[in-house]
């Protein structure tokens, strides 16, 4: 059996992420939410990410989903400045968000796309792995559920498709790995095709 080349920090991040997301499920399903960060971590590693990026992938939704229990200071202290920076880059809520109602959906997404274009090179691999896995999951569910799928989300079909299409360009501008951008674009094209089908 091969041993992991990663340090104890990676194992700590696995346990930490599983604990924080405990009891949480993916929208509209009974699938444990932790399956998403694990898949994002796998994509990051498949596309050349290092240990800190893999750790950030495991933790990428924590500030957005659990700001009342996990602070930026705690992430920095436990996992380091770079991991915190990548997690912040994957987060579309304001830096002072501590729970409660989030800013309007479209406002958050526009700000995220603009920030990704300006400064995304430092976190683009992890952010793109997140969006690629989400888009693949949506595509799979869309094939089974049709348009009723969109009722799971805070924004409808047209808004979601606008967001994914905008992200393709933003990730390319940010210098994300080209193979990942191509995979993401291919998935978005399939989503767009399904959406237009009669």
Can you tell me about this structure?
By secondary structure, the protein is an all-alpha fold. The protein has a single domain, classed as Hypothetical protein af1432, CATH 1.10.3210. 65% of the residues lie in helices and 0% in strands. The chain has helices at 8-20, 35-46, 51-59, 62-65, 72-79, 81-89, 105-119, 124-145, 157-174, 178-196. It starts with 7 loop residues before the first helix and ends with a helix. 33% of the residues are buried.
* CATH H-level homologous superfamily name: Hypothetical protein af1432
Strand content: under 5%
So what's the CATH class? Mainly Alpha
User: What oligomeric state is this?
Assistant: single chain
Q: Assign the CATH architecture.
A: Orthogonal Bundle
Task: Summarize the biggest pleated sheet.
Answer: none
Q: Kindly, what is the distance between the CA atoms of the first and last residues, rounded to a whole number of angstroms?
A: 51 Å
Would you report the number of β strands? Answer: 0
Number of domains: 1
């Amino acid at each position: 059996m091969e041993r992991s080349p990663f340090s104890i920090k990676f194992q700590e991040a696995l346990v930490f992420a599983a604990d924080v997301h405990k009891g949480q499920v993916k929208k509209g399903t009974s699938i444990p939410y932790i399956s998403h960060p694990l898949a994002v971590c796998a994509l990051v590693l498949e596309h050349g990410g290092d240990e800190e990026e893999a750790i950030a992938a495991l933790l990428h939704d924590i500030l957005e989903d659990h700001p009342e229990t996990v602070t930026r200071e705690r992430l920095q202290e436990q996992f380091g400045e770079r991991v915190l920076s990548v997690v912040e880059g994957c987060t579309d809520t304001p830096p002072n968000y501590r729970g409660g109602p989030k800013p309007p959906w479209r406002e958050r997404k526009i700000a995220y796309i603009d920030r990704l274009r300006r400064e995304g090179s430092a976190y683009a691999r992890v952010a793109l792995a997140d969006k690629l896995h989400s888009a693949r999951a949506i595509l799979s569910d869309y094939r089974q559920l049709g348009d009723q799928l969109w009722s799971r989300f805070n924004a409808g079909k047209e808004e979601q498709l606008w967001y994914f299409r905008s992200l393709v360009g933003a990730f390319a501008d940010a210098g994300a790995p080209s193979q990942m951008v191509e995979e993401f674009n291919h998935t978005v094209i399939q989503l767009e095709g399904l959406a237009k089908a009669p």
